């Protein structure tokens, strides 16, 4: 009887269900963890498994583009065929993203589109690495790994302490718009290595913020059927951070 009363009380008061000593703000900010912690952690693990598989696929595709001589020679040939391939690779993620937005909760179509989207992004990464030094690429991979692990660990710690990063959303969107504008300026008015380094530094800060923001959303806000959306957000954050660090190191080289 006492157990039933306790369960009834917990259903109306999420804070009372959480272990004694836990910050009330955490209970308010993370209702999914309070209501069903096992399901929430299973959801989080599922998302990170998907992201890990995406990254493995990206490494495989990008390595193929850079290490298989005929493919590398084709992209470096600067022929009309290579130019068409470049354009198709650049626009393909956008083309795949459109149906994925509408089918993101429809299994298994969402996973098929996710795999196709990952291949498109992987080709973009592979092409972006064609003109880069191998040592610089490996340094960028190492730095990206350290930053992602560090920021992810920090966000989980901050969530446990009751901190919330939802306020970052508008600032990050504004920062993205500035980066896009800066990219167009760089195309029209090349700024050399200094401009590349500055752009890389700013972009790295912005996408580091996105990693914190999207990890916070993963912990607290995504519903259980939004695993594809959560995986895409984190995957793109990591890829964009890698490209930003690559630009930063290239500017310093």
UniProtKB/TrEMBL annotation:
Keywords: Membrane, Transmembrane, Transmembrane helix. InterPro entries: Bax_inhibitor_1-related. It comes from Eragrostis curvula (weeping love grass). The chain crosses the membrane at residues 47-68, 83-102, 109-128, 140-159, 171-191, 197-215, 227-249. Belongs to the BI1 family. PANTHER family: BAX INHIBITOR-RELATED (PTHR23291), OS07G0177200 PROTEIN (PTHR23291:SF40). The keyword NADP does not apply. GO terms for cellular component: membrane. The keyword Membrane applies. Pfam families: Bax1-I. It is found in: Membrane. It comes from the Eukaryota. This is BI1-like protein. It is a multi-pass membrane protein.
């Amino acid at each position: 009887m006492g157990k039933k009363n306790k369960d009834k009380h917990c259903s109306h008061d999420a804070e009372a269900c959480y272990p004694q000593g836990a910050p009330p703000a955490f209970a308010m900010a993370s209702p999914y963890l309070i209501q069903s912690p096992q399901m929430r952690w299973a959801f989080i693990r599922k998302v990170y498994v998907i992201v890990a598989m995406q990254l493995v696929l990206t490494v495989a595709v990008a390595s193929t583009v850079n290490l298989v001589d005929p493919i590398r020679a084709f992209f470096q040939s600067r022929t009309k065929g290579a130019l068409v391939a470049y354009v198709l690779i650049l626009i393909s993620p956008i083309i795949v993203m459109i149906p994925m937005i509408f089918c993101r909760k429809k299994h298994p179509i969402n996973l098929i589109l996710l795999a196709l989207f990952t291949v498109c992004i992987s080709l973009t990464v592979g092409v972006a690495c064609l003109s880069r030094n191998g040592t610089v690429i490996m340094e960028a991979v190492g730095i990206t790994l350290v930053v992602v692990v560090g920021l992810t660990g920090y966000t989980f710690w901050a969530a446990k302490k009751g901190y919330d990063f939802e306020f970052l959303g508008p600032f990050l969107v504004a920062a993205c718009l500035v980066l896009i504008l800066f990219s167009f300026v760089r195309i029209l008015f090349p700024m050399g290595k200094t401009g590349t380094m500055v752009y890389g530094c700013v972009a790295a800060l912005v996408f580091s913020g996105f990693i914190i923001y999207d990890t916070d959303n993963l912990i607290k806000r995504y519903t259980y059927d939004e695993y594809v959306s959560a995986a895409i957000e984190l995957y793109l954050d990591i890829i964009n951070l890698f490209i930003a660090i690559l630009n930063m190191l290239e500017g310093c080289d």
